[in-house]
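I have a small job for you when you get a moment. Can you supply me with one protein entry, sequence and fold together? It will help me judge whether the discrete encoding reads sensibly. Write everything out right here, beneath this request:
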Amino acid sequence: MNEVILLTGGNLGDRQALLAAARDLVGRDIGPVRKASSLYETAPWGNQDQPAFLNQVLIVDTALSPGAVLERIGSIEAALGRNRAEKWGPRLMDIDILFYGRAIIDTAELRVPHPEIANRRFVLAPLAEVAPELVHPVSGVTVAELLAATPDTLEVRRV
């Protein structure tokens, strides 16, 4: 089994219900959810003229390859109404692979660890709740240290 860490989030519809549905579908289609962060309401990143997001980090045990996890994520997002019309735009559901074990993957389809982790408080706050001592395999710095040093000042609030 491999550990995959996912960030789920959305800012349209019934955000709590959609996060619960995403958590259930991840557990069914990718692997058991071993740990889930609290929910965090976060200011939008990128295009700020949109509603606040609700985000949650999931730590999942999976037998799937990184590519298969990515495919399943696409299916889960589609099942929950994801429309990829606008980069950084409003969405019902977005699921990102933050880490896949200690793997470093850099392909056209997938970059792991997610390249923007250190720059996004909305990722780091829930991640630090469930895995503060996790060491980033590229930077060699813990998640707690990344959170303390992030330049991102957008509001992130545990709900």
Remarks:
- The first strand starts at residue 2 and ends at 10.
- The helical segments are 15-29, 66-79, 121-130, 143-149.
- The two ends are 31 Å apart (CA to CA).
- Residues 15-29 form the longest helix (15 residues).
